[in-house]
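Example 3.
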Amino acid sequence: MQELSDLALDVARSEGAGYADVRFVEQATESLTVKNGNLAEASSNRSEGFGVRVLLDGAWGFAGSSRLERAEVERTAREAVAIARASGLATREPIVLDDSPPAEAIYRTPYREDPFAVPLDEKLRMLFEADEVMAKVPGVTLRTSSMAFGREHKTFASTEGARIEQEILDSGAGIEAMAFNESEVQRRSYPQSAGGQHVTGGFEAIRELQLADNAQRIAEEAVALLDAPQCPSGQMTLIVDSPQLALQVHESCGHPIELDRVLGMEASFAGTSFLTLDKLDHLQYGSEIVNMEADATAPGGLGTFGFDDEGVAAQKVPIVTAGRLVGYLTSRETAPIIGRRSMGSSRASGWNVIPLIRMTNVNLRPGDAGTLEDLIADTKDGLFVSTNHSWSIDDRRLNFQFGTEVGWLIKNGRRTKMVKNPTYTGITPQFWGSCDAICGPSEWTLWGVPNCGKGEPMQTHGVGHGAAPARFRGVEVGVGRW
Amino acid sequence: MVEPVGLDPAGLDALLSHALSLATDAEAEAIFTERSAALTRFANSRIHQNVAERDATLRIRLVRDARTGVASTNRLDDEGLREVVARASATLALATPNPDGAPLAEARPSTADPGLGFVAATARADPELRALGARAVIAAGDAAHLEASGAFSTETATLAVANSRGMRNTHSVTQAKLLTVMMDGNGGSGYAQATGPDIRSIDAAAVGEEAAGKASRSHDAVDLEPGEYPVILEEYAVATILEYLSWMGFSALAVEEGRSFMDLGQQIMGPNVSIWDDGLDPTGLPTAIDFEGVPKQRVDLISNGVAQAVVHDTATAARAGVESTGHGLPAPNAFGPMAWNLFMSPGSSAKEVMLSGIERGVWVTRFHYVNIVHPRRGILTGMTKDGTFLIEDGRITRPIRNLRFSQSIPEAFSTIEAIGSDTQLVAAEYSGINARVPALRLAKFSFTGATGAEAQG
C-alpha cells in the first residue's frame, strides 16, 4: 500500500497540488439479529478503497475509488486535482492548514477478545438466550436481540511526511422488547436504544453486558407501559438517566461545538450553531457544576482513536468548565481561524468521503450527587426518565424535544408510578443552567452512539458520550396533545 | 465527469452469473450496486468541499432449508467473488432456520423502459458544470446581500439483481440535485431545491433567486406564541411529512408489528387526500426494480383518505399471501419494505389563493430535524426553518421565528382545506425517499414551542 500511497501523492504534487493526503481503508463489519426466536439477519460486509484529498491554490478537491490499481490511483489523484481546480471557480480567500506536526505512528484499539474470532454459534447462543427470556413474558409482541462488530484498518500519508497506520475495532449489542395493543405501542431497550451499547474494544464488552439477565425486566416494563398512565404535562423537576443524558449531550453540546457548524460550513444541511465565536470563553452554557470535555483518548469510547483522519494525534480538551464555554471541536482548516491548533476531531466514515469535524467522546464529567437512588431520595417531587425514544433539535441547537421509553413519577424521594410516552422540551443553555445535581463516578458510563449523521454526502459515524444521571429544575414535560 | 466503474451489460451479466455459479450447495442471490457520484458543496458563498467517488459492491445471499447467510464485498475480481461466496457460505453453515425469513424472489422480468430515469447529460456532468451552478446560486445571494450555502450533486447508479430462480433485472438511473440556504446573518434565511434525473432541467439561477427572495423577506422576524394555527405548508414541508409517513407506517412490516398508523380499510385522513408510490412514474425519480430484483408496482397507499394498502417485499408478501409490490430493501433486513417514490394528488388552488380567508395563521416553507414521537398515532415533532411567516387577514404580514410542532399527521391531514394545483418533486435530506407533492392549507396544526428572541441570546 505504501507504493500506491506514494504514487497518489506524487501524482497530486506533479499536477500542482500544494498539499495532498491519501487514505487507504479496509472495513469489515458483521451484523447479527435475532427477532422473535428466529435468526433474522447474519451478514458480513467488506469494503476497501482509497481517497485522495488535495489543496490547489487554497481550494479543496477530493476523489475516491474502490479499485486498488496503479492506473486507477493515478486517475483518481488527477481527478482530485481537477476537482480542486473547479473549486477555484467559486472561492474567496485561500484555505490554510494549521502547523500540526506530521506524525509517523501505529495505533491499534486495545482488546482482549477479537469478536471476529468468536464462533458464530456462541454469539447466536447469547442472542437466543436473551430472546427466550423475553418470550416468556406474556404480552410481549416483538423481541429483538442484536450484535454488531467492525474492524477498520487504515493508513494515512501526506505530502508533509505523515505516515500513520491504525486499526480500530468496535463491538456492540443490545436487546429490545415491544408490546402493542389496538391504540398503543411501547418499547423497552437494554442497555440503551438504537442497538444497545457500542464501544471500541473486543467481545469482552459484549459478555459484560449480560443481555439475558436484563431481558425479563425490560420485557415486563414494555408490557406494563401499555396500561401505564400518560406522562403528565407541565413544569417539573426532571431526573435524566445516563444513556438519555448522553444523547442530550450529543445533540445540545456535541453538535453545536463543531467549529465547522459554528463557521457556517454546514448551514445548508444540518444547520449552524448558537455557540458563535463571540461566546467562546464568555457564555455561561450551564450551571457551575456542569463540566464537559472532548476526549479521544478515553478507553473504550466510540470516539477513541490514535490519530484523526488528518493525522492529528488524539487529545483530551475542555469544552465547558464550571458551566462556561471554553472550547470547540476543530480541524486543521478551522482551528487557525480561532488562533488555535487542531485538537484532532476530523474524521471520515470511510475511504470514499472527506474527513469532517466529528465528535470524539464528548463527556459530561460526573458530579457529587452520589448514586441514582441517592438523587431520587433527594428529590421531593419530580419525573425520572429513562432510555431515548425520539429526538429533535433546531438548526442552531437551541430548541430541543426528547421522548424517552419510560418515566416514573417521584414523590417524597421515592420512585412511584410508571408513566408512558414521556417527553421533555427546552432551550439548551436554560436547560443546562437548571442542572443542580449530577451523580458520582459510580453511575458514570461512556456510551457509544453508533449512528451520528453529518455532511453531504451523509457520513454515519460512531461517537461517544460519558454521562451520569443528573437533575434539572423546572423543565417542560409531557409536550403536545395525547 | 461521473464515470461508471466500467462494466458493460455483458460484463455485468458475466459477473453475476459467475458469482451465482460459485454457490453450489444453496439457492443464491447476487445484488450488484454501482455508484458514481460527485458533489460540490458551498458555504459562506464559496465552494468549500468538492468530492467524487466511485464504488461497486456485490452482495451475496445464500438460502438453504430456511437458513440464510449474507456477505458483501467491493472486490469484484475472481478472488474477491470466491471470498465473498465463501464468507456467506460459512455463515449459512452455522445459521439457524428462520421460517419467517425471506425466500428468493421468483423470476419476474422488468418491462420498464431501460432508459427510464437515466439521462446521459447528468452522467456526463463535470466539476466545472457543478461549480458554475454553485456560482449562479452564489451570484443570486450576492445580489441580495446574502450568504449562500448549498450543494450541487450528480449521481449515476446501477442496481442489478440475479438469483438462482432465474431472476435477472437491471436498472441504471441518474439524479441531479441542487439545494441552497441563503442567510442574512441576522436570523433571516430562505431555502430552495431542484432535483430530477436530468441536470438540464435545473435552473441554478432560479433556485438561487427563490431562496434569496425568501431570505430577504425573513429578516426582523418576531415571536409567535405557540398554539394551534391554520397553516399553509409549502411543497418542501409536505414532502418531509410524506417521508416520515413512509418511515412510520407505509410498510407491511410496520402494520404486522403493530407500529403503523395505517388502519387498513379505515378513513384515516380527509377525503381529499390520496397518496401513492410509483417507481415507474417518469415525473419522479424512477427506480424500476427493488433490491430483490422485483419490478416495482404502483401502490395506492391512501385513497380519498382511506388507508388502502401498504408496500411489500418478498418476505412480508409471503406471510400475507400476496405478491411483492417491488419495495424490498436488501434481504433479509429488520426494517422491512420501503415506499420511496411517493406522490400526493394535487388540488385546484394556487398557493397565493390559499391565503384567502385565513385570519391568523402560519406559512411554513420547510421543516427541520423531524422525528417520530409515536408511530401508531402518527405523531411527529420538528422545527420550521428557512422561511416561516405570519398570515393575517388573508395575507403574509411578517416573518416569525422558528416554531416547534408536535402533531398527529393523520389528524392534521383530516383538516386539509385546500390543495395546491401544482406539484413539485422534492428529494429528502437524509434518506433516499423522494416525493412529488402539492402545497397544502390545513385548518389546524399544533405548534408546541418556539425558539424565541430570548433563546437566541
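The first strand of chain A starts at residue 19 and ends at 35. Chain A touches chain B through 92 residues (CB under 8 Å).
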